[in-house]
Write a structure and sequence with these properties.
Blueprint (H helix, E strand, L loop, with lengths): L20 H8 L3 H10 L6 E3 L3 E3 L2 H16 L4 H39 L1
Length: 118
């Protein structure tokens, strides 16, 4: 496991839409059982669940997990303290994530339009 203070050494997040719990575990250097526990403790962490209760995380979930990891492992917050800290930031992050999602969608639609014109 990475030493505290080395969150910047985590691998880059690939450009996929969904990630399995195993992939997220490797991307965030956190074991799968810890991710499942954090889902219970942090209401803003809510991956999509499909057949067989399989979890599929999106990019914003991975970013949230990295932020939780940083608060707990690097900055020394307790679970409750991290939850309170993220509570206020969660609203700002949702707005930012929504804006990023809209920009990404517009970009993808422009690409499709360009491909159709060719």
């Amino acid at each position: 496991m990475l030493e505290p203070g080395n969150n910047s050494q985590l691998p880059p997040i690939p450009g996929k839409r969904y990630f399995t719990i195993g992939e997220v575990s490797e991307l965030c250097d956190v074991k799968p059982h810890v991710l499942r526990y954090w889902e219970q403790e942090f209401p803003m962490l809510n991956p999509v669940k499909r057949r067989g209760n399989r979890r599929y995380y999106q990019r914003q979930d991975v970013l949230m997990i990295r932020q939780i990891r940083s608060l707990l492992y690097e900055q020394g917050f307790t679970i409750g303290g991290a939850r309170l800290r993220l509570g206020g930031e969660h609203i700002k992050q949702e707005a930012t994530q929504t804006r990023q999602l809209i920009e990404q969608t517009v970009s993808e639609l422009e690409d499709v339009l360009a491909a159709l014109k060719d």
